[in-house]
Design goal:
By secondary structure, the chain is α/β, with parallel strands linked by helices. It is built from five helices and five strands, in the order βαβαβαβαβα. Helix 2 runs parallel beside helix 3. It is globular and about 35 Å long.
Length: about 120
């Protein structure tokens, strides 16, 4: 059965770049969201067991999405992918429940390592 994966970023270029960085043999069903509100709706609809989440987006940012996931106790693993690599941002996303933080632009090897470390992908 395919794993539902959500890529939530306001940049279509960034969404495609993340998708290209995903392991090629991984059986997934990818959904895209252009802002946090769309992302949260997709997670609520079961389209995001694994979520790749940008922090800086219109309508609802990544921090707000993480807060909503936590408040609603939604079952998903969130990996933040952002250019905002300040230590405070990294600490805050971990407190809000993200399993890890990857800096943009995404490095495919780093992404696969995070997926493997958390038992999400076994290549």
């Amino acid at each position: 059965m395919s794993t539902p994966v959500l890529i939530c970023d306001d940049s279509s270029f960034a969404r495609k770049q993340v998708q290209r960085a995903l392991p090629s043999g991984w059986d997934i069903d990818v959904t895209f969201a252009g802002n946090g509100e769309e992302g949260l709706a997709a997670i609520s609809a079961g389209k995001g067991d694994v979520v790749f989440l940008d922090l800086t987006m219109p309508v609802m940012d990544g921090f707000e999405v993480l807060e909503a996931i936590k408040k609603q106790d939604l079952p998903c693993l969130v990996i933040v992918i952002s250019g905002d690599i300040q230590p405070e941002a990294m600490a805050r996303v971990k407190r809000l429940g993200a399993v890890d933080f990857i800096k943009k632009p995404v490095d495919a090897q780093r992404l696969q390592q995070v997926l493997t470390d958390f038992g999400i992908y076994a290549g």
